[in-house]
Amino acid sequence: MKTLHTMALAALVLAASGAHAQTAAKGPKAEKADKAVKVSDADVRQMIESSFTSKGPATVEGVINQDATQKTCSQYPDRLHVPAAVAKKVEAAELKQVKYPADNNFIGDWKEGEKIAQNGRGMQFSDQVGAPNGANCYACHQLTKAEISFGNIGPSLYNYGKLRGNSPDVVRYTWGKIWDSNAYSACSNMPRFGHKGILTEQQIRDVMALLLDPASPVNQ
């Protein structure tokens, strides 16, 4: 759904760029007037509402209706220049929303976790409503030595548990990071898997096992 917002914004920017080119050809005065054209949130909202329809789990409302953190982070699209005070406020607010397992059982089955990490399906218009989502971890991280196809937007997670251990603090941090990445890194590009209901609690347990279980290929 983030893609729809980006597409709509890109369309508006292209339209504004085309208008700028036309007015620039008319002379300095027209070009100066054109510089005042701005793409507002209202413009983006109108573009999304008029150009897209909800289908399956991909809804227009999911793009338009931002929570407080999304609204804040939308002001810093590159995610690299979030003021320290703003980042601290976002992280504190999101940390309060992390839900830890009531039974204190953090670790599941790493074999299931590997399947989830490899699965990039979910929350697209072609998916079934209520069907389990994947985490698509390999799109951004290296996890195992055997996997040769992985992204590098995020840090390598190979040997994650082997390097960090599995102390209560590490386990709790890892769960929190998966549940709501913004709790530890404001305006992170990583999805808020638990907070947004992308993964179930059991799926998060299984991904935890993939990262922390000594028998997992991540730690070989």
Automatic annotation (TrEMBL):
<feature type="domain" description="Cytochrome c">
    <location>
        <begin position="108"/>
        <end position="215"/>
    </location>
</feature>
<dbReference type="GO" id="GO:0009055">
    <property type="term" value="F:electron transfer activity"/>
</dbReference>
<dbReference type="Pfam" id="PF00034">
    <property type="entry name" value="Cytochrom_C"/>
</dbReference>
<keyword id="KW-0732">Signal</keyword>
<feature type="signal peptide">
    <location>
        <begin position="1"/>
        <end position="21"/>
    </location>
</feature>
<keyword id="KW-0408">Iron</keyword>
<keyword id="KW-0349">Heme</keyword>
<dbReference type="GO" id="GO:0046872">
    <property type="term" value="F:metal ion binding"/>
</dbReference>
<dbReference type="InterPro" id="IPR016823">
    <property type="entry name" value="Thiosulf_SoxX_II"/>
</dbReference>
<protein>
    <submittedName>
        <fullName>Sulfur oxidation c-type cytochrome SoxX</fullName>
    </submittedName>
</protein>
<dbReference type="GO" id="GO:0020037">
    <property type="term" value="F:heme binding"/>
</dbReference>
<dbReference type="InterPro" id="IPR030999">
    <property type="entry name" value="Thiosulf_SoxX"/>
</dbReference>
<dbReference type="InterPro" id="IPR009056">
    <property type="entry name" value="Cyt_c-like_dom"/>
</dbReference>
<keyword id="KW-0479">Metal-binding</keyword>
<dbReference type="InterPro" id="IPR036909">
    <property type="entry name" value="Cyt_c-like_dom_sf"/>
</dbReference>
